[in-house]
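Hi D.,

Good news: the full-assembly prediction came through. Inputs first.
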Amino acid sequence: MPETATTFEVREVLDTARVIEIKGDITAASEDVLMDAYTRASESGVRAIVLSFAQLDYMNSGGIGLLVTLLVRAQRQRQRVLAYGLSDHYRQIFELTRLDEAVGIHDSEEDALAEVRR
Amino acid sequence: MRSEESWAKSVARLEVTDVPDGAVNINVEGRRLTSPIQGFGKMWQKTYQVRVPSDRVSATDLIATWKENFREFWPEGNHFYGALTGIAPGDVALLNMTLPGRMKLSTGVMVLYADDESFTLMTPQGHMFAGWITFSALEAEGDTVAQAQVLMRASDPIFEMGLAMGGHKQEDRFWQHTLTALAAHFGHAGEVDTKVVCVDKKRQWSKWRNVWHSAAIRSTLYTMGAPGRGVKRLFKRERAVA
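Then the structure:
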């Protein structure tokens, strides 16, 4: 698997929710771009951050560490963090690292947004 | 190496397949892994770095050496009982450590992730902290930079108090010693750069019950029970002889 460039695009999906589209890899080297995307996504009134992993190429343990840090920042802002598009492998990694206990995991963007609206 | 095989397979509870001579296995078997999310105390990110000239060792060779000789670089009095072959994803290692006041602590770690450039150890319930330590290396400005980065919360209120009362300093000394020994292995007297960031000042009071699994309490009770176990063994032996 060759290393790919990483981008984090922010999409407004609801007044209170933003999706961060992850494209490429998440490693410790992604810290600045991921946190910049989180800052852009965290406008006032945003209560939920939805992470899209549908176009994730690769994540190592440094990447999981970044997600924990993002989660803490979101919790401080009283925001929920949800995720969708995880492959079976990364779903297992979320379970193994017990991130799934704090991040709501959904099959699709629609399911994640339905949870936000609830 | 970018492969799914770099990750440990999913496990609900830890299993110790082999207990080496001299190792104490009382706080690992059957325990769940814990990330910083399950911890009690403030969340910290501690980064320790040492630079070794690149002409002495490349980043991948440094990581290979570190994985193969992981236990050799630890301070005296602390034991890492892992696989003799080194560090591989899913391996469970027992740790027998000496804390301030000569207190013995038995705990363990699981290798969460390992590739050519890094490896990560994750802690089980009852460990001093909930979280993981990532060991990595990269090449920059003519040097190979070896790094140990801890992302953690103290597991329970007792360990949180212990960290505040000198535990943080002891942990800093532990990893500074380890990195200094690693650099010395490559013939370099490296100075360790330490950076500590409090990621979350809030304590997770809902997790105070983690104290039930405390390796400190259980290790102390185990040590206190040593004379009783000795007498029991003696009776067993006498009965077998009779």
